[in-house]
Structure formats: structure tokens, C-alpha cells
Amino acid sequence: MLEAKVYIVGAGPGDPELITVKGQNILKQADVILYTDSLVNEQLMEVAKSDAQVLKSAGMNLEELVHCMITNVKQGRSVARVHTGDPSVYGAILEQMRYLKNADVDYEIIPGVSSVFAAAAAAQIELTVPELTQTVILTRAEGRTPMPEKERLRDLANHHSSTCLFLSTTLIKKVVREFLEAGWLETDPVVVVYRASWPDQKVVKTTLGQLDEAMRAEGIRKQAMVIISKAANEELLKEEGKYESKLYDKSFTHGFRKGESVNG
Fold it and tell me: What average pLDDT does range 11-38 have in this prediction?
């Protein structure tokens, strides 16, 4: 039996099998399930117990949302607050936690599979390739939500790291312009994954210069992850012996294996 508190559960990117075991177990036991119906797969709700109250939150404002959670916990019920992906990335959970804390309501965060990793998996790319890129930037283009001054997209693009853009599909022309201004090439590879892990998933492999046209051709203007990275180059699969990890190098010694001498 679950403790009477709020469980902020990451539902994963869409595929109901990509929720964690812990997250699914909470859905099976929760007295109240409050889920983001605009993004979370409804199939996940099928595991709810027969007497659970299942509520959709897309039409609720913040005050209505937290009032529901606080009231139910105060009455001794466990509440599963279900978010898409992982709650810690663009999950808008800070304001919810603030209300819960002020009301003296306990909460626990259950991590989930982020859409960025589902997108990378769908595109069959590794975001961190040795000697090519070892840093992943998770960010968004500036739209109605302003960016902090030191996190302007052009400044981040200057690092030439793997860059994964959330919530940016309507601002692609601006994205392309800022990356080109930061020294990226029109021929640099880009992957766009629409609704990663859902049945209608689309994977579009293109270049920075062709990005806007490719997305327009596929009708992609929402719910897509844009990955701009030299690691997205399919030619890397053909370049044997390049950009390989030391972990599996037979001459490399680590805590579990002694490397072989290069001289035999």
C-alpha cells in the first residue's frame, strides 16, 4: 500500500513499455492518478486499480492541479501525478512542489525516460562520440518563454556539442540562423524525431541547411525533438577504427581488465 503523498511520475516518451517498473507499480497502487492527457499515453492508465480515481490535467490550471493533489493527500489518499518523459526536464514541477511544500504535503519524484533519449534511440545515434563530441546540451529556442541572458542559443551553439532542442519546432528558421552564425555548416547533420516511441513516430535525417524544408515536407511543427550533432552523421558507421571508446580497446587497462601489450 502506498503512503499518502504525491508521487511525481515520469511516464516516459510515449511507448507504454518505456515507463520504469517503479513508475508502473505506483500507477497500479495509487488512489488518485492525475495525468497530462495531452502528452501521456492513455494506455498507461489501464493498470490503475478498479477503485482509483483517474483525472486528466490538461484542462486544469496550476491552482486547480495542486488543490486536487493537496486535498486528496490530506484525506489520506496516495496521488500519482504523471508527467510525460522525465519530470526534471521541462516538467514544470518546481511550482507544483512549491505549493506542496507550503501545504506540508510530502512528495517523491520518480524519474522517467526522456524524449531526448527516445529520439536518439529511434535515430540510432550515440550522442557522445569519443574525440568528436563529449557534451550534450539540452535546451530550447527562445520563444514566449525568455531564455537567461547567458543561455542564448547562439552562445550554446558556439560549443559545437551535441545539441538537443525541446519545444523549438515552430522556431526552426531562427535555430538554423543562430547555429550558422555560431560557425556550424549547412552540411552538418541534423535528426528530427516526431513523437518518439509512439506508433506514428517519424525520423527525419537531414542537414542544417535543409532542416526547415525537410520538416515542412513532413508536416512536423510540434511534438518533435531536434538533434543537431556531428554524431548524427551516418558516415560514422563506415569509418572503422575512428572515434572508438578506450573502454573496449584491447591495449587499455582498467579496473576489470588488464590491457594487452601493443608489442605483443
Answer: 97
